[in-house]
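Postdoc handover notes: sequence design on the structure in folder B. Input tokens:
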């Protein structure tokens, strides 16, 4: 990993272009147009370098599910890197439900269409399973971070995120995608220690600016709305790509496009508090196609979305959230949909999930649950609903949750 671009929106323009489909030829043309105002791919890679491409592969899933960065976007980026004389390698450690091991990594690559794309277009998929504890002295929370070896050995990183909603973080784009450099099940420890959204958000910023990707490209050709980022979300054709050297700036632009209040996105609230952007959404526009030409008026927000008031970030949220979060939605695995695969049990950072073979469904201990929704996020069968119970229903009606 090597620093290539500074943090802070003032020096980090964001570009956006239209792209109607995932034909690789069309995506390559759109990518060239997207990166041109930023100096082209030549501004981010040099001949002879080994460049890690970091996609979002929450789990192995069909490209049309909009859960993973589409293989066509990965292929187009890899080809652009090769045109500059550099060597691209796709590096990912899929979501929390599986170990950082060769078999699950390869399975996720195959199910997401990456193996076929790599064979067709000649780029490398990293199947290495080593990782290293890295010192992060400038961090607020994550002073030491586990980072997968494929990223550590690269000369630079290109962040290939997916445009998705997120039940815990409201939106997952460029910044949160870099949480994936932490190997497999190690991610659970961060959720357990940093259960409050604002603390988790601070950690995400620490990790993002440790990795310091040279450029962040968000796949919004087919994005996700609703209760993302996994099988609970809904694919939504947006027909766009967004890019920039600063992940915070890119995420602000994406939220403006979707109509998501940046005050409801803990990462962007934390970034404002660190002085990484002004907090004024209008300060961030896109070159190429302006935000105004890309905005979606009826984008479906995640179920916990609150555009203002408690739950929208800021000091009131931080003060009351520890008290109110115990009444927030709880995961409810559903018999008939649950296959007892055990992914949710493995993903839970506090061991609140168990498998009830007699009832033929997973069970959640509400007294242990920290409402991180990792089980909902990684369930491959969309078998876990998030529901209010008891006083939670009352607080929800009062717009407190």
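Designed sequence:
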């Amino acid at each position: 990993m090597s620093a290539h671009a500074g943090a802070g929106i003032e020096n980090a323009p964001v570009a956006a272009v239209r792209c109607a489909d995932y034909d690789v030829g069309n995506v390559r043309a759109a990518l060239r147009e997207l990166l041109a105002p930023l100096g082209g791919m030549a501004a981010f890679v040099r001949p002879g370098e080994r460049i890690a491409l970091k996609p979002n592969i929450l789990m192995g899933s069909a490209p049309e599910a909009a859960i993973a960065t589409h293989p066509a976007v990965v292929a187009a980026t890899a080809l652009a890197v090769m045109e500059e004389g550099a060597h691209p390698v796709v590096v990912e450690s899929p979501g929390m439900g599986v170990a950082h091991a060769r078999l699950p990594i390869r399975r996720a690559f195959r199910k997401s269409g990456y193996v076929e794309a790599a064979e067709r277009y000649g780029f490398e998929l990293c199947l290495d399973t080593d990782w290293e504890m890295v010192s992060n002295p400038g961090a607020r929370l994550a002073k030491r971070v586990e980072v997968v070896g494929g990223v550590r050995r690269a000369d630079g990183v290109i962040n290939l995120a997916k445009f998705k909603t997120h039940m815990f973080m409201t939106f997952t784009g460029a910044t949160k995608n870099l949480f994936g450099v932490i190997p497999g099940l190690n991610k659970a420890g961060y959720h357990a220690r940093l259960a409050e959204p604002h603390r988790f958000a601070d950690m995400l910023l620490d990790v993002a600016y440790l990795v310091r990707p040279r450029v962040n490209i968000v796949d919004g050709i087919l994005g996700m709305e609703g209760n993302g980022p996994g099988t609970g979300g809904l694919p939504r054709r947006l027909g766009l790509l967004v890019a920039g050297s600063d992940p915070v700036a890119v995420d602000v632009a994406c939220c403006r496009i979707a109509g998501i209040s940046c005050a409801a996105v803990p990462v962007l609230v934390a970034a404002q508090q660190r002085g990484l952007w002004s907090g004024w959404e209008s300060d961030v526009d896109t070159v190429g196609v302006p935000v105004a030409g890309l905005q979606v008026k009826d984008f479906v927000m995640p179920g916990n979305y609150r555009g203002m008031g408690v739950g929208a970030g800021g000091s009131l949220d931080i003060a009351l959230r520890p008290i109110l979060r115990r009444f927030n939605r709880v995961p409810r695995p559903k018999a008939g949909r649950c296959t007892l695969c055990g992914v949710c049990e493995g993903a839970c950072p506090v061991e609140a999930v168990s498998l009830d073979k007699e009832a033929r469904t997973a069970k959640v201990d509400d007294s242990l649950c920290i409402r991180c929704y990792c089980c909902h996020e990684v369930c491959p069968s969309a078998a876990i609903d998030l529901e209010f119970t008891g006083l939670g229903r009352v607080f929800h009606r009062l717009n407190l949750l």
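Context for whoever picks this up: Residues 1-7, 308-315 have pLDDT under 50 and may be disordered. Don't rerun without checking with the PI first.
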